Amino acid sequence: MKRHLTTSGFTAVLVLASIWLGADAAAQIRSVTLGIRTHCPYGIRGCWPEIRDGLEAPAEIASIVGEPDITTDTCEVKMREDWTADPEMFQRNFTTMRIGVDVRGVEIVADGYLELQGKSLVLRINDNDEPLELAALKQKVQWDPANKQPQAPTRAEKQAFAKLKKQSLRKPVRIRVVGPLVSAEKGEPGKRILQVRKFDVLEIRS
Question: What is 7-18+25-204's CATH number?
Answer without folding.
Answer: 3.30.70.100
